[in-house]
Amino acid sequence: MKKLFKSTAMAVLAALTVGTSMSALAHKVGIVDMQTIYAQVPQTAAIEKTLQSEFAERRQELEKLQGDIRFETEKFQREGTVMSDEQKQELRAKIQGMQKQLMEKGRPLEQEIKRRQNQELGKLQQTIVAAIQEVAKEGDFDEVKVKDGTIYFNPSEVTDLSEDVIDAVSKK
């Protein structure tokens, strides 16, 4: 009788353990492709458009300066053989001065553009993360992973939530 009781108790304990581990295996995982999300949400294009208009005037100024440098360089190449040494020296100095001016204006502008871009993309990232959390909660997912950081996933076992996230972010 004791033997029967022990074996029954062991069987119940084993069944509970297997039941617990089976429920632990029923882990619902989703995956998101951040590159696809950033590429397809309308906010990315809006950020790009905003930054282009914000820095358009300064970019045009630099493009004009680049055009002037190109023109003067071509002029030097075309007419250098007929120029006096003094004229060559003056033109070289003019080109070097314009190149220095381009670098002095170009670097700060590039840094400012990157800073603003990071600022705007940071805001968008917060919106995307909130949308991922919202979609995951609605779909009762236990975990959501980023596709770029995942070496392998079984598409039949893992749900790609990217399109749902794109839809959720696009509505905001």
Automatic annotation (TrEMBL):
One of its GO terms (cellular component) is cytosol. It holds the Pfam family OmpH. Residues 1-26 form the signal peptide. GO terms for biological process: protein stabilization. It comes from the Bacteria. The keyword Heme does not apply. Keywords: Signal. The keyword Zinc does not apply. InterPro entries: Chaperone_Skp, Skp_dom_sf. One of its GO terms (molecular function) is unfolded protein binding. Belongs to the Skp family. This is Molecular chaperone.
